[in-house]
Amino acid sequence: MNTLVMWDEELLRYDMGDHPLDPVRVELTMALARSLGVLDRPGVTVQRPDPATDEVLATVHDPDYIAVVKAASTGRRIGIMGLGTADNPTFAGMHDASALIAGATLRAAEAVWRGETDRAVSISGGLHHAMPDRAAGFCVYNDPAVAIRRVLDLGAERVAYVDIDVHHGDGVQEIFYDDPRVLTVSLHESPRTLFPGTGFPDETGGPGAEGSAVNVALPPGTDDRGWLRAFHAVVPGVLRAFRPQLLFTQCGADTYHHDPLANLRLTVDGQRAAYLALRDLATEVAGGKWVASGGGGYALVECVPRAWTHLLAVVTGDALDPRTETPDEWRKLARTRRPSHTVPATMTDGGATTWEPWVPGDTPNAIDRSIMATRRLAFPFFGLDPHDPRD
User: Which ranges of 82-193 does DSSP label H, i.e. alpha helix?
Assistant: First the structure.
């Protein structure tokens, strides 16, 4: 198994200052993965990215928007197209930093599609809220959409995008809503309680692309077992029916039970179980072609580095034993970077990752109602029976 990991410290320049999307979470992820030997495994190549060109960015983003991002990057005060807000403050070099992330994810997808590598990871990527003509939700350029568009341009006929961030993958869904070649699947906290207010189960794709969007909106408080129950009740069925040639996953870690910006209750153990399930599905339905990116995640020390190190381990080979201790040198670095945060001693929270398979019931709980809503509205487009647990 060969894996390409896109990484360079220049990716840490995507820095909005005093802001939840702190690049320290990516720095600590790569430091933890390296200290545990994940990046030194046989078959793993770490590659520096090149920035996405304006021409490539324009396959997803309006040229006028790109021009505004460039202008804002020079220090000009700009408050249009979603920029200059609390969510998306402008910063010096913003265009270059954003284009580099897009280039990293683009290169990951190109390499997998062309058969240069079996799997690829762009940990700094996953900026799924950016729209064609505006910034949104901490995201300037939509690197997953740029990468997927590139794979389509290279000849792909079916690409599946699975988003497990706590927030709905609205930008990617919007960009491909009318394109039947791209299936977007998002599991997220209910839009009734969380940004961006989209991702209801009746969002199923535009004219001519009906069934190309699948949304599972989960109630606040959903834990590992409930989340895994919902995942397995929806995602395998639609992926098997769609038969993607490549699986792209956005693996935001803000489903964590102590994430400050959301209300789901997963542990790093539940997140690790999700990565294992995605790996198995990539092998089963996409011939092993798997591109994984990061995304949200704001428990900067407590969760994100451990979650994404588990992701890197799963993508590059064997999963790490959850009981693995975090190395002393990493704990020291984490304390140096964020002295006020709790530094985990092991790679586990002791989460329970066994789950009961979904079956239709007469008196379902809130999670089961969410599952049934998605199955009822989306499954018929795939020729699947919403009421048959075998589908």
Answer: 94-113, 143-153, 170-176
Contact 283, 7 (CB under 8 A): no
CATH of span 3-382? 3.40.800.20
Q: Where are the domains positioned within the chain?
A: 3-382
Count the helices and strands in the chain (H runs, E runs): 11, 8
E-assigned strand segments in the chain:
3-6, 44-47, 119-122, 159-163, 182-189, 213-218, 246-250, 290-293
The model's pTM is: 0.98
Q: Residue 319: exposed, middle, or buried by beta-carbon count in 10 A (0-12, 13-18, 19+)?
A: middle
CA dist., res. 15 & res. 268, Å (int): 25
Note the pLDDT tens digit of each residue in 103-125.
999 999 999 999 999 999 999 99
Q: Active-site positions?
A: 129
Number of other CB atoms surrounding residue 280 within 10 Å: 12
Cβ neighbours around 342 below 10 Å, total: 12
Instruction: Report cis status (omega within 30 of 0) of the bond before 339.
Output: no
